[in-house]
């Protein structure tokens, strides 16, 4: 799957069949009521289907790369410098991924936005298990578990990059593959109270559970300001206010918010 220094032969995964055997009961006689119409001892076998995004299917992503890249870029537009947006794609080809890293090093982007890029790639999920199963902590890499930091940027601080991180960046395609596989559910449904919905819900480009953080932010704003951040007399006007907030930002009343409000992040 990957042309890197770390990949070992893939493990074959088999579907597990579970057979439920029911003990024979003496008080159930043939042709005696409805229970005789079915033989529980010959019940069909139940098959546990392997799930995408798990080790059972070698962490095969659940969503297409096109949809996942749209989510990735939408997050980067908020948290990553514009000159680094070219990194916001789930590139799983080793040569292409290596080219992206070299392009980053030779451009204005550098590695200054690496934390933001990895955060958006993870979509606030811990994908360390995938990276570990794909040998990103292999002793052959001689960097211990250092690369696993890049598989859970929300829970692990990257800190200062060292020469050991060059090995991790060399396997950027594996890191992106695991982050892509971590995206389990994509929805295009538009439902809920309009003033609590995230911009991507209205744009119908696909969204996941991260939109709940937007609803929580609106609630915190209301508790602190006593008013809603998005105004409108109709649902259409509220939608326009929310979508435009990505470019225009929010207006925070100076008299309402205390200086300590800046610590609510």
UniProtKB/TrEMBL annotation:
<dbReference type="InterPro" id="IPR002602">
    <property type="entry name" value="DB"/>
</dbReference>
<dbReference type="Pfam" id="PF00069">
    <property type="entry name" value="Pkinase"/>
</dbReference>
<dbReference type="InterPro" id="IPR011009">
    <property type="entry name" value="Kinase-like_dom_sf"/>
</dbReference>
<dbReference type="GO" id="GO:0005524">
    <property type="term" value="F:ATP binding"/>
</dbReference>
<feature type="domain" description="Protein kinase">
    <location>
        <begin position="1"/>
        <end position="265"/>
    </location>
</feature>
<feature type="region of interest" description="Disordered">
    <location>
        <begin position="31"/>
        <end position="53"/>
    </location>
</feature>
<protein>
    <submittedName>
        <fullName>Protein kinase domain-containing protein</fullName>
    </submittedName>
</protein>
<keyword id="KW-0732">Signal</keyword>
<feature type="compositionally biased region" description="Basic and acidic residues">
    <location>
        <begin position="38"/>
        <end position="51"/>
    </location>
</feature>
<dbReference type="GO" id="GO:0004672">
    <property type="term" value="F:protein kinase activity"/>
</dbReference>
<feature type="signal peptide">
    <location>
        <begin position="1"/>
        <end position="23"/>
    </location>
</feature>
<dbReference type="Pfam" id="PF01682">
    <property type="entry name" value="DB"/>
</dbReference>
<dbReference type="InterPro" id="IPR000719">
    <property type="entry name" value="Prot_kinase_dom"/>
</dbReference>
């Amino acid at each position: 799957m990957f042309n890197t220094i770390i990949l070992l032969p893939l493990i074959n995964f088999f579907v597990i069949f579970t057979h439920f055997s029911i003990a024979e009961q003496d008080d159930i006689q043939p042709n005696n009521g409805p229970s005789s119409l079915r033989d529980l001892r010959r019940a069909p076998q139940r098959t546990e289907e392997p799930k995408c995004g798990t080790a059972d299917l070698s962490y095969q992503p659940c969503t297409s790369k096109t949809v996942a890249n749209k989510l990735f870029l939408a997050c980067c537009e908020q948290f990553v410098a514009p000159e680094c947006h070219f990194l916001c794609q789930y590139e799983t080809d080793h040569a292409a991924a290596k080219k992206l890293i070299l392009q980053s090093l030779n451009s204005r982007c550098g590695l200054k936005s690496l934390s933001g890029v990895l955060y958006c790639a993870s979509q606030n999920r811990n994908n360390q298990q995938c990276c570990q199963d794909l040998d990103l902590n292999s002793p052959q890499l001689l960097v211990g578990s250092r690369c696993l930091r890049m598989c859970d940027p929300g829970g692990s601080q990257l800190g200062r990059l060292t020469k050991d991180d060059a090995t991790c960046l060399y396997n950027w395609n594996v890191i992106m593959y695991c982050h892509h596989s971590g995206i389990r559910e994509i929805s295009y449904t538009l439902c809920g109270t309009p003033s609590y919905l995230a911009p991507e819900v209205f744009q119908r480009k696909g969204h996941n559970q991260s939109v709940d953080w937007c609803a929580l932010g609106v609630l915190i704003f209301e508790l602190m300001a006593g008013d809603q951040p998005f105004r409108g007399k109709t649902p259409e006007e509220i939608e326009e206010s929310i979508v435009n907030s990505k470019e225009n930002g929010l207006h925070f009343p100076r008299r309402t918010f205390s200086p300590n409000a800046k610590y609510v992040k």
